[in-house]
Amino acid sequence: MTRMTDLSEQRPARWTEATVYPDMWTDPDNDPRDSESTGPDGELATLRDFLSSYRMTLRMKCEGLSPEQLARRSVPPSTMSLLGLVRHLAEVERDWRNWITDEEPLPKLYGKKDADFHGAVAEQAVVDAAYADLEREQAATDAALAAFPDLGLRVGKDGIAIRELLVHRIDEYARHSGHADLLRECVDGRVGQ
């Protein structure tokens, strides 16, 4: 029982910037994800729109935090942190390109398994590099997939369908955006979807 009391005393007060819908991250007029307009036409455009929205959500959850806050492992003994998620998604974007080729796999960005999380340390240079890695890897994977407009086309050594790869990317970002919700709340108390 004492341990729970100690943890609850360390929790920051919950808050949100939203005033219209208090369970949201920000008010609709300030939300860059533009969920109020009509969705795109077509399957590929819809998949890209969902991916873009989840990518933006992750970045929004990390905004305004110091390197120390980004690197904070909020749920011990987990190694997961917001900075670790940024690094992890850069690593995963790179790996997805391995799925669409028959060539030798690209080397890992951060080295051995879980180095993306273990190397997420509270240094501005590490934060800057993580964001640069993520942007570069996202752009490279987007460009590689743009060469395959047929969503049913099967590619790579395992014959994965382009559609499946796009849905898998959305799933990965959506899952980690949920983690980011909880991590951010533990870091500074900010809540909202």
UniProtKB/TrEMBL annotation:
Q: Name one Pfam family in it.
A: MST
* Compositionally skewed regions (Basic and acidic residues) per UniProt: 1-14
Q: Write down the SUPFAM superfamilies for this protein, in alphabetical order.
A: DinB/YfiT-like putative metalloenzymes (SSF109854)
Region ranges (Disordered): 1-44
Q: What is this protein called?
A: Mini-circle protein
